[in-house]
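Q: Okay, next protein. This is Transcriptional regulator-like protein from Halorhodospira halophila. I've checked the sequence twice, so it should be correct. Can you predict the 3D structure?
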Amino acid sequence: MTDSLLRQWTMLQHIPRQPRGISAGQLHDRLRCEGYAVSLRTVQRDLNTLSSEFALVCESVGNEQHWSWLADAPVLDVPGLSPAAALAFRLAELHLGALLAPEALRALRPHFEAAKRVLNQGGSQLSHWPNRVRVLTRSQPLLAPDVDPGVYDRICQGLLEGRQLYVHYRPRSRGSELRSYRMHPLGLVMRDPVSYVVATLRDYTDVRQMALHRFEAVELLDDPIAPPAGFDLDAYIHEQRAFDLPDTNEPVALHLRISAGVAEHLTEAPLSEDQRIEACDDGWWSLRATVPLTAQLRWWLLGFGQAVQVLEPQALRDELAAELRAAADLYDE
């Protein structure tokens, strides 16, 4: 393989996709770092030659000419994408698309398209796999609220770069009055159809959860974020259980009387590591487990209706009994 072919292949690898670009001078510096002793004029000639064969564009940026791949240009992979790798990209597109930052999603789009082409060519049993795998939720499906794409992009950019944001937000608890804040984004959490920005506001250290769809405008600032000392997103979610609205930091000993169907379900998918289920003489089952006392636990218990009876804690039993009586009264009206 000739030096000029290797050099030009290296150049193609260093040229980014739109909207980013690279100048001939920057490419010249990168080639020199990789051991290619050529002149800037040679780099410029190579670029003109390559642009006649590949999807390259040249745009003026100030006093320089910047080169880019077209945003939708096909991926140049040598060797080509294998069916197994194509399958991984296809499943990532189907099931992880909502979790990827917009910039990452844009960068992967050509790979997703290449994966579709490989799988559509047939010849591999793996090509059928995306049509045979689905992910379902047991909860009632809800339509996701609309989120402004520009707002989402800037929030994700602030998270990626650790920069503050100036946001216009419409909190649900304040009569839909539009509020403006300087915000320190700390994380993005997807919970069912609603996404939340975990953040602090202004110079306060208390961490807030702000629904993504309630942001109406976002401006990216140059100032770096100032997270609370020791903040960790996983600890905030799993240890502090901030999204579960816990009543107490200490778990409670839950004692339930459950039907045979519920017992079978919870035997396969336990509530906790210490869960114990025992048969009763009357055809019902007794369940004991140590669990956090949260709003989510209440909703889950109420969802079983007459198939679950809370025996302990007494306060939880009384609360759910009152809730069910009030619900029954609505149907008696």
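A: Here is a summary of the prediction. Residues 102-120 form the longest helix (19 residues). The longest strand covers residues 179-191.
Q: Noted. On to the next one.
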